[in-house]
Amino acid sequence: MIAIGSDHGGYKLKEELKRYLEEKEIDYKDFGSQNEERVDYPNIAEEVAKSVQSKECESGILICRSGIGMSICANKLKGIRCALCHNEYTAKYAKLHNNSNILAIGADDVTTSEAILILRMWLATNFEGGRHQERLDLIKELENKNMK
Prior knowledge:
Helix content is about 50%, strand content about 15%. The chain is α/β, with parallel strands linked by helices and about 150 residues long. It has a single domain, classed as Sugar-phosphate isomerase, RpiB/LacA/LacB (Ribose 5-phosphate Isomerase B, Chain: A, 3-Layer(aba) Sandwich). Strand 1 (about 1-5), helix 1 (about 10-25) and strand 2 form a beta-alpha-beta unit. Helix 2 (about 40-55) packs across helix 3 (about 70-75) and helix 4 (about 90-95) runs parallel beside helix 5 (about 110-125). The longest helix is centred in the C-terminal third of the chain and has 16 residues, at about 130-145.
């Protein structure tokens, strides 16, 4: 199950990505927004991140105009590794080396076709482990030290 959420600026792209997930028969849970009326993105980012944090959802997708605000908010929750990806390369390495569990996309930075390629690469890539796991362990130590 994938959690998906957007603010008003990412709503149209979110709907396109939902269609892609449906075509691929990938289950998702939509955390909003439900239209293009103004909403506060921190609330949606928190809901998506909490669903990943609690393991209700395996991973998440967040979309706003730039992707920056959503990724900042999601990364405030312990255990979340939200990566803002602009292309297939960044999507691949977000998962391969960093085992990101939430993908952030900026709706104003990519076309729908590019966003689908980014999502497809992110979903298809598996975490490499090895030395990268050692680094994730260091990130976890940082979280334990600095996040109450």
